[in-house]
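Technical note accompanying the year-one report. For the benefit of new consortium partners, we illustrate the data format agreed upon in the data management plan: each record pairs a sequence with a structure-token string. No post-processing was applied to the example shown here.
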Amino acid sequence: MTIRTHQLSELIKEMNKKELSSFLSRFKCSRSTDSERFLREVSVMHDKKDISRTHLIVDSEEDKILGYFTLALKCLSLNECDLSKSTVELMNLNEGVAQAYLIGQLAKADDAASGLGKRMLDEALKAFIDGKRKFGCRMVRLDCKDELIDYYVSYGFQHIRRNHEKDLNQMAIFI
């Protein structure tokens, strides 16, 4: 198995629209049909509009997407949070708003090997660390469902709060 990471923007240039759509539609993630929908219906538009960048983890031998993650920038408003003073200081708040990198999507295929999620998080954080060296920003955030809190905490993220809709948890790690 040869696993490589490809930026969606590269595939957009290399494949015609039909080929790309067919390739993306083969990704199966029964744990999150929203992740399937995002990859198939939204990721290309977000990439073209410079809203986010999607990175695909591909088994090159089988021409199969094993997982993907999406990176973006998104500030975090923190007017009503019960956080430690040291955490608030790390956030560099400006009028209650913290600059942050965002892991907007992180999904692995149903048959992906164990450990792929950690590999994707490692690659995402590596990209953000490179960005930090070039233009600053130390906080990385993501939103997750309740059942994933412990997974992200074990990686080093800390729970910030529930989102405004109260359906996801906002998590952060400092790089």
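Partners are asked to follow this layout when depositing records. The first helix runs from residue 8 to 14.
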